């Protein structure tokens, strides 16, 4: 017996394709959430959707290519049994516990080849020597063609790479510092892409450009220190899932107003909360409660199909699975953070006796 889902009208507010029994909270909460969407570069759409040989190779090895171009490295306890298609059939990305996204300083080290962020230093070099050295032996020629295409697509549109290009040609790399802005709070209802100067700054030891951002991470040419990018930083998604966010579009942060809420109202609510939480040492303490889009609502909106809008996330195959798992962990940790930061409202001390007994 076959069960057919009843067809449903698209959401009247955000035009999302609805399936039977899906509640309004699954797309835009009946018009309360609106996020602007930038068009995916047409050449990248071709890699995601066409049937030429490069596009097939790109999609079949999507996690490899994303890893090649991402700025961060991911750490998690991956379940190897479910990713082994020879023994268990369908590939399933299954992680245990937390997922960490780390970014590393770019100091030179003997025997170390440039990776992640450092590869962008050499993107003005026409031979692409550093990038192509990372190709895998078995599929070197196919890898090269796709990497070349991706590099051309990202050239000029990714704001991070614009900051770093040609740093590979300087003699005194150890004097250089890269400051990544962790405090981007763009109102994503209208515009989603920050300016090149807003995402990062590059400066040399002793220069006046240092300390441009309120909350940032500083990488340097002196060492290879590791820094964590936290799930509530707006740049978490675009530093890690570059193929979904090629222009450096921001992901979720806790200051995206709902429809009908002004930025001034959000800032006021944040200031009140920050004062109340005072000195918790956590930079997520200043969220503005129910005036802003929650992390769950944000990603529900992002995962929807909408007629006429190309959504690369839904074409992502194994990278889609990784992104979905990462997002799930992000929603869970945001809920735990809420409980941790709101003990005075939740009054958990009252229940302490229950646990003890
Ligand atoms: Zn909707």
Could you explain how this protein is built, in words?
This protein has 357 residues and is α+β, with helices and mostly antiparallel strands. The chain has one domain (42-356). 34% of the residues lie in helices and 10% in strands. It has 15 helices and six strands. It has helices at residues 42-49, 53-60, 62-69, 80-83, 85-88, 129-132, 140-154, 159-164, 196-199, 236-240, 263-277, 295-302, 318-341, 343-346, 352-356, and strands at 73-78, 95-104, 176-181, 200-204, 216-220, 226-229. The strands form two sheets. Strands 1-2-6 form a three-stranded antiparallel β-sheet, covered by helices on one side. Strands 4-3-5 form a three-stranded antiparallel β-sheet. The longest helix has 24 residues, at 318-341. The model has no long low-confidence stretch (mean pLDDT 87). The protein binds zinc ion (ZN). Zinc ion is lined by residues 11, 13-14, 16, 27-28. This is Helitron helicase-like domain-containing protein. Residues 298-354 form the Helitron helicase-like domain.
Secondary structure tally, helices:
15
Q: Please give the alpha-carbon distance between the first and last residues.
A: 52 Å
Bound chemical compounds:
zinc ion
Mean pLDDT: 87
Radius of gyration: 22 Å
Q: What is the count of structural domains? A: 1
Instruction: Please state the structural category.
Output: alpha+beta
What portion of residues belong to β-strands? 5-15%
Shape: globular
Protein name: Helitron helicase-like domain-containing protein
Organism: Setaria italica (Foxtail millet)
Pfam families: Helitron_like_N
């Amino acid at each position: 017996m076959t069960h057919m889902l009843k067809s449903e009208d698209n959401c009247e507010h955000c035009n999302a394709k609805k399936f039977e029994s899906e509640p309004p909270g699954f797309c835009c909460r009946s018009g309360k959430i609106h996020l602007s969407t930038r068009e995916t570069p047409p050449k990248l759409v071709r890699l995601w959707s066409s049937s030429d040989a490069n596009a097939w190779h790109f999609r079949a090895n999507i996690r490899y290519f994303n890893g090649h171009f991402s700025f961060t490295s991911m750490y998690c306890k991956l379940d190897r049994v479910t990713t082994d298609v020879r023994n268990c059939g369908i590939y399933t990305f299954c992680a245990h516990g937390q997922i960490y996204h780390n970014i590393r300083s770019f100091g030179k080290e003997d025997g170390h080849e440039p990776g992640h962020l450092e590869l962008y230093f050499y993107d003005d070099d026409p031979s692409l020597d550093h990038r192509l050295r990372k190709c895998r032996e078995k599929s070197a020629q196919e890898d090269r063609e796709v990497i070349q295409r991706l590099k051309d697509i990202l050239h000029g549109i990714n704001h991070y790479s614009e900051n770093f290009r040609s740093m590979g040609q300087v003699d005194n790399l150890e004097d250089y510092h890269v400051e990544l802005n962790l405090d981007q709070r763009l109102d994503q209802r209208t515009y989603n892409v920050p300016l090149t100067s807003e995402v990062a700054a590059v400066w040399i030891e002793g220069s006046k450009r240092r300390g441009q951002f309120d909350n940032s991470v500083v990488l340097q040419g002196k060492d290879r220190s590791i820094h964590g990018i936290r799930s509530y930083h707006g740049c978490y998604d675009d530093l890690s899932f570059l193929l979904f966010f090629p222009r450096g579009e921001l992901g979720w942060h806790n200051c995206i107003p709902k429809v009908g809420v002004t930025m001034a109202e959000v800032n006021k609510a944040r200031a009140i909360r920050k004062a109340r939480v005072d000195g918790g040492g956590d930079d997520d303490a200043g969220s503005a409660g129910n005036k802003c889009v929650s992390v769950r609502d944000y990603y529900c909106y992002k995962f929807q199909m909408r007629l006429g809008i190309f959504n690369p996330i839904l074409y992502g195959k194994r990278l889609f699975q990784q992104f979905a798992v990462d997002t799930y962990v992000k929603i869970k940790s945001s809920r735990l953070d809420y409980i941790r930061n709101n003990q005075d409202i939740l009054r958990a001390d009252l229940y302490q006796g229950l646990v003890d007994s």
